[in-house]
Specification:
The complex is a heterodimer of chains A (173) and B (428). With 173 residues, chain A is an all-alpha fold. Chain A has six helices and no strands. Classes of the chains: A mainly alpha (173), B mainly alpha (428).
Chain lengths: 173, 428
């Protein structure tokens, strides 16, 4: 059991590091893409073809990868005023229910998102030679990570490793 | 189905929200449940619609303005704006309160979010106000309410989001937000003046034109940013997303190279913060698109519109009811999800009543701004309370007069649509 906990903690640490790097990288990439597009349009007077399609797809990747990250850090926006005043036992039960629902929705995104991504097969973006699946798979990957993180935290909650207050949603944005 | 889908949606939304499930999941689980139990709907839609919602060029602007606001915040640009505002209005009774409000208006035109505004201005102004003898609750109340201007004036992220949901012109919405923003600023300053005279708050010396010129020189460079954004978007030179890119780039140039107030490590932090906030916003957009699709598929917004019009068809009665509902919604739901949840439901009603979509957007935005000045959802108030080191309970009495001023602005915007629609009609 102790070995399993160490392994889970190790994976969790690396998952956070990877997701953090991805979120910074994707936000930085969007910043660079858009500024390059502005530069080519207004300075070089020769607009790039992908100026709208590619950033929009990168934003979609950021959305689902970021959603998994925020699930791990409990930073999704929510309304916590009622849950905060519940008794510890009831709070634990409600948070367990929430984690099950999050895992359920993450699984749906993973499953149906996977089917959708597969259906795009070898189709390419219209404006640039990149496969659509590259971006479309962000949704099933993000969904699977949401489900995985939620189930891991559920196990932690039920075994007393995770405190219910650590799972409360972010009430500020 | 054993129960009308509209009722199932309402029950699920309320129960899951109260249970503390994150809002994006509340919307997603509600939509997915309905889709899975409705035999008339193909469940594969769950794999398509959310991606379509997140794959959005216009909303890249939100991320870029977040980067700009965060860089300006961490780069201490607010201090230059405060000095300039101080030279303009510091001589009025209750000088620092006016400086706080006017700086908020300046910073609003850079940040786009009330929380950035409150953090940037509050961290400088609240300690200064306390030092000059203003009560902490008053200083926090001024900062919190004036930060609301950030969601009314361009480049308001709420207006960008509304433009996307309501399929309205972002240029018209940005132009429409300018006069209401200035009006809110004037009303807040008038309120602060009345309170300051009554309580004998100090002034900040005499008005000196020389000081205006000196501080104006320092503030001129940061203030080029909102001018650039406004002229560019309203003039049709660039899109809101391109304006966001320019704003983010220009803010980094100013803070990292001209003023040298941030370093590379801070830049990574700003990308992290903006990336996470953007993902938070966009995941709500993605799941609300799924719910929105189901609502539209079932024609639920049209049914709600008909039901409300069945109670009364009087324009003013319905408009008043909408305002009360938005205000209440604003107190319990954050601005982003509120826009994503309420606009698809109420827009058909607004269309039937003949309310211009730009006008409706500003009515919604101001309502949500006021609603968010009261708990339980009061992120801006929480920030200012944390800076002022007081409890929410202590700040509320000081906020009432300022909330009253904002309600006056809301009524004026409702009754006189020209306040919103005149400027876009002139410049666009």
């Amino acid at each position: 059991m102790a070995r399993l906990i160490v392994l889970v903690e190790f994976i969790d640490l690396w998952l956070i590091r990877i997701l953090d790097a991805l979120v910074i990288g994707l936000a930085g990439l969007l910043f660079c893409l858009l500024n390059y597009a502005v530069f080519t349009r207004f300075v070089l007077n020769d607009s790039v073809s992908w100026s709208e399609e590619l950033p929009a797809h990168v934003l979609a990747v950021l959305t689902f990868i970021g959603a998994a990250y925020l699930t791990r850090t409990s930073e999704h926006l929510g309304f916590d005023a009622v849950v905060r005043i519940l008794s510890p036992g009831l709070k634990r039960a409600v948070m367990a229910g929430n984690l099950i629902l999050m895992a359920f929705f993450g699984s749906l995104l993973a499953y149906y998102g996977g089917i959708a991504a597969e259906s795009f097969g070898s189709r390419m973006l219209i404006s640039v030679d990149l496969p659509m699946a590259l971006f479309r798979y962000a949704m099933p990957v993000g969904g699977a990570l949401i489900a995985l993180v939620s189930l891991t935290r559920l196990a932690g909650l039920l075994t007393g490793q995770v405190h219910p207050d650590d799972l409360l949603p972010e009430s500020d944005a | 189905m054993f129960l009308d889908p509209g009722w199932i949606i309402l029950i699920l939304l309320v129960v899951l929200l109260i249970a503390g499930l994150p809002i994006a999941f509340v919307l997603g689980v509600t939509a997915a449940t309905l889709i899975l139990i409705d035999p008339a709907v193909v469940p594969q839609i769950i794999g398509l619609i959310p991606f379509g919602g997140a794959n959005n060029y216009l909303l890249v602007a939100a991320l870029l303005f977040m980067i700009a606001g965060e860089v300006m915040n961490q780069g201490r640009i607010a201090e230059k704006l405060i000095a300039f505002a101080s030279s303009l209005v510091g001589h009025i009774r209750g000088g620092l309160a006016h400086v706080n409000i006017l700086t908020s208006l300046f910073f609003s035109e850079i940040s786009g979010t009330a929380t950035s505004d409150a953090a940037a201005i509050g961290s400088v102004m609240i300690p200064q106000m306390k030092k000059r003898g203003y009560p902490a609750a008053f200083a926090a109340a001024v900062t919190s309410t004036s930060a609301t201007m950030a969601i009314i004036v361009p480049p308001s992220l709420n207006l960008i989001l509304y433009a996307y949901v309501a399929n309205a012109s972002i240029a018209e919405l940005f132009a429409a937000g300018i006069l209401p923003g200035i009006m809110v600023c004037a009303l807040l300053m008038a309120t602060a003046y009345g309170i300051s005279v009554k309580r004998g708050y100090p002034t900040e010396g005499e008005f000196q034109f020389k000081r205006v010129l000196e501080t104006g020189k320092d503030a001129a460079i940061p203030l080029t940013l909102p001018i650039l954004i406004l002229v560019g978007i309203l003039g049709g030179i660039f899109t809101a997303t391109e304006a966001g890119a320019i704003a983010a780039f220009w803010s980094i140039i100013l803070a990292a190279f001209l003023y040298r107030t941030i370093k590379l490590g801070n830049l990574l932090d700003t990308f992290r913060i903006a990336g996470k906030r953007s993902a938070m916003l966009m995941f709500i957009v993605a799941t609300s698109t799924l719910l929105g699709w189901y609502l539209t598929n079932q024609r639920i917004p049209q049914d709600i519109a008909q039901a409300i019009l069945g109670i009364s068809e009087n324009y003013w009665v319905v408009l008043a009811a909408i305002n009360v509902f938005f205000l209440l919604a604003g107190t319990i739901i954050h601005g982003t999800p509120a826009i994503l949840m309420l606009v698809p439901i109420f827009l058909p009603l607004a269309d039937q009543l003949g309310i211009d979509r730009v006008h409706f957007g500003l009515i919604l935005t101001i309502n949500l701004g006021i609603g968010q000045q009261t708990p339980p959802v009061a992120s801006v108030v929480l920030i200012t309370c944390a800076i002022a080191r007081i409890s929410i309970a202590k700040i509320i009495p000081s906020m009432l007069a300022f909330i009253g001023a904002m309600l006056v602005a809301l009524i004026l915007v409702n009754v006189f649509p020209a306040i919103v629609l005149w400027l876009p009609s002139v410049i666009l």
